[in-house]
Design brief:
Elements: E1 8-10, H1 15-23, E2 28-30, H2 34-43, E3 48-51, H3 54-59, E4 65-67, H4 73-84, E5 104-106, H5 108-111, H6 117-122, E6 126-128, E7 135-137, H7 140-151
Parallel strand pairs: 1-2, 1-3, 3-4
Antiparallel strand pairs: 5-6, 6-7
Length: 157
Amino acid sequence: MNSHRPEFIADTMLQGLGKWLRFIGFSTVIADNFKMARLLLLANPSLIFITSSSDHLRELGEFTAFMVRKNSIAEQLQEIDNHFHIFQRLNLFTICSLCNIPAQPISREEIRDRIPEAVKNNFEDFWICPGCQRIYWQGGHIQRLLEKMQRMGIPIQ
């Protein structure tokens, strides 16, 4: 198995899959259109283009591309894992689900005016996206996502 951590471009038709790849810790650009995807691949040929279009797959012969055939995100993630072994390299909730930028730890004091009082009182660890400034903490939404990941067959620890 290649030890390189794969980075992806998701076809615009696979936005949901792209967001889930971010949740599990894989940099994933969600291309607005096929032209944008081609330009990104020209600039960085190590990116892996994920598509559900056989036409797009055919047009990208010189680049690494992967076609998902399943419809559900759980099955699509399994297809990608079968090929790229991503489940062996999970890094959950480390990438902003909106911006695709790694979140950075930040102290509660630095964001105290930006989070609800209940969050300030109940959580100690926080992360911020340097791009969009979105603040993350391990609240109930994280537990719900972890439970969903287990139901989807993602082997979380």
